[in-house]
Phosphatidylinositol-glycan biosynthesis class X protein
Amino acid sequence: VILDVQAACQDATVTQELLKEGFHRDLLVKVELGVVGEDAGGCTVAARTRLPPGIYVDPYELASLQQHNLTKVVLIPDVIDVEAPEYLATDLLVLLYMEPDPRCSCCFRAALPVHGRYHRPAEESEEALVVLKSPEVLVCCCDNCLSAECWKPAEVEAPCSSKNVGPCQWYSVTHKPAYAESILQVPVGLRQHSSLVCAVTLLATVLCSSLILAAVCKYGHFS
């Protein structure tokens, strides 16, 4: 029996991609469970990943997406300072619920919009590299029991699905990532340009203020 269980247990395959360019990206995660001869359609699959300080999820954008049932995510912490730069931010733990892929009975996928934070100006490079590790794959089969021998219990305080009110038993799945990590390239300024940037900013501020003042004096009504 042990040999049969070991033969049926295979590592899940995880693919993680960062789509688009610049500060505003989409994190695409794909999972194929390594369960032989069984249908995972009754299971909930989630990807638990830790976002480093250089990446964040906009909770207001996320609330809009969840309101339209376009995604389902649990953020820890749930209060995020979207204006904080990278050097003042902290890690963010994300539990991303995945949708079944109709083309494969054991395949799941999900996308999440993420954003790069501003970094300190650099000395030479015009890009900062933010490393995103491969996520942990979690499975909860509340309606369909698969081979639990393939997985180990995981401590997750989150419901398996919208049908469950309280937490349920999640299992961590061993997996082999297509890539051990993903790299986000964030544009940064150069320190030697600081004087030029300050001068241009000051000039633009004075010019705009002058135009506003001129418009007020010309079209304003004063009693």
